[in-house]
Amino acid sequence: MVDRNVYRKEEVRWMAYRPAPKTLEVIAPPCIELAKDYAAIEIDVEIDDPAPTVAATAPDCAITATRRCEHESPMIALDITGSSRAPG
Fold it and tell me: What is the C-alpha separation between 47 and 4, in angstroms, rounded?
């Protein structure tokens, strides 16, 4: 922590401030134009890089197909209830 001034044309990534007594607000990035320099406390904050995302697992495909090869009314039926792609 360092006591220092915030200068009129200074750019910051985020800041906390007191707009009124007993209140605290944070803005990021602050879009402000200060009329003058203000006393401030600078706090260095280390932010870790986000953890790498875990690769999506391959879908669990358990699709069962049956067919009836009758001459009059051939049919193919699919059952996807054991699949991770099943609706619902």
Answer: 22
Alpha-carbon span 58 to 40, nearest angstrom: 52
Nearest to 27 by CA among 38, 41, 11: 11
- Of the pLDDT bands very low, low, confident and very high (cuts 50, 70, 90), residue 3 is very high
Q: How far apart are CA 62 and CA 79, in angstroms?
A: 8
> In this predicted model, what pLDDT tens digit does every residue of 5-56 receive, in sequence order?
988 888 777 788 888 998 888 887 767 777 888 888 888 878 788 787 776 6
Q: What is the pLDDT of residue 85?
A: 56
- Positive or negative, the CA dihedral 6, 10, 15, 21 is positive
pTM of the complete model beyond 0.70: no
d(CA 19, CA 30): 13
Nearest-Å Rg of the Cα atoms of the chain is 31
Say which residue the tokens 């995302």 belong to: 53
